[in-house]
Amino acid sequence: MAIQAEFEHEDDWEEFLERTDPRKRVQKKFKGYTWSFGRDEDDEGFTRECVIIEVPAQESTEPRHVKVKLTPSHLTLELHGKEVINDSFTDARWLDVEASYWELETKKNSAGERTKGIRYLLYLRSDCPKYITGALFEKEKATMGAQDDSDDDTADTRIRQIANLKEPEPRRDEDVYFSEEEEFSDYECEGCGSKSVQVMKRADDREFKVYCNDCPYVSVADMSKEAPSIRRQREIDEARARKKKEKERKKLAEKLAIQDQVPVDLAELEAVD
């Protein structure tokens, strides 16, 4: 069974799962190149975490047109004599220079046309605990703004976030309570607001009443009152339904925006006919 978060933290948990899903490779685009972080097989057939840099190239490009210089702290890449990348890494501790390599590849784009490009695989060192999810090069920091730095995204921080996650309480039926005290815990005096009250039925009472210990006020007790746990469960269900409806509305709005269509009232169309 998948781990679930409390309702108040569901959005943060979903964002964490989306960001840390190794099956989803997020492409970050910059001038002249794109890069992504994920997993790929090395020359020995082992799956390793790596950064993949992709640079579009001309159809006539050959290996002799590519000039590369890679160090743990800097990458220089020239194509047909033109500088594409000449920048320092934001962190010089993660790169395995010896295992990294580049290759020319030909693939089809979304239009079905064959395109050629450079695919540079930068493998992480086996003793590196971090994930490359922030800025890769120093020049990227200016364009990425105040996004989280990848120095904070390590295996330890991810494990700690999962360990500190508080799961919701088990779902209960309306007739299930953990204790009798919970059912009557939130009675209060309607006269002074004190919670120091007693719910009882004296000999001369026809029904249960709330007797205040701080004032002489007496009121009829609502014995059909929901337990706090049941009431919170119902409120969460209602809030979750509203959030689901809002998400569906946003998705529909985005779909209509992509299609560049304006919602039309069917009643108006029938009136025109």
Morphology call: elongated
Q: Give the ordered list of helices and strands.
A: HEEEEEEEEHHHEEEHH
Largest beta-sheet details = 5 strands, antiparallel
What is the average of the pLDDT values?
A: 80
**Count of DSSP H/I helices:** 6
Q: List the uncertain runs.
A: none
Could you tell me the strand content as a percent range? Answer: 25-35%
Q: What share of residues is helical?
A: 25-40%
Helix/strand/pairing category: alpha+beta
Please report the distance between the alpha carbons of the first and last residues: 54 Å
Major sheet strand order = 1-2-3-8-7
Radius of gyration, CA atoms, in whole angstroms: 31 Å
Summarize this entry quickly.
The chain has 273 residues and is of the alpha+beta class.
Name the features.
11 strands, 5-stranded antiparallel β-sheet, alpha+beta, single chain, 3-stranded antiparallel β-sheet, 273 residues
Task: Describe what you observe in this structure.
This protein has 273 residues and is of the alpha+beta class. Helix content is 25%, strand content 26%. The chain has six helices and eleven strands. The chain has helices spanning 10-20, 140-144, 155-163, 180-184, 228-259, 266-272; strands at residues 28-30, 33-41, 47-57, 66-71, 74-79, 82-88, 101-108, 114-123, 197-200, 209-212, 218-220. Strands 1-2-3-8-7 form a five-stranded antiparallel sheet, with no helix packed on it. A hairpin with a 2-residue loop joins strand 1 and strand 2 (33-41). The longest helix has 32 residues, at 228-259. The chain is elongated and about 105 Å long.
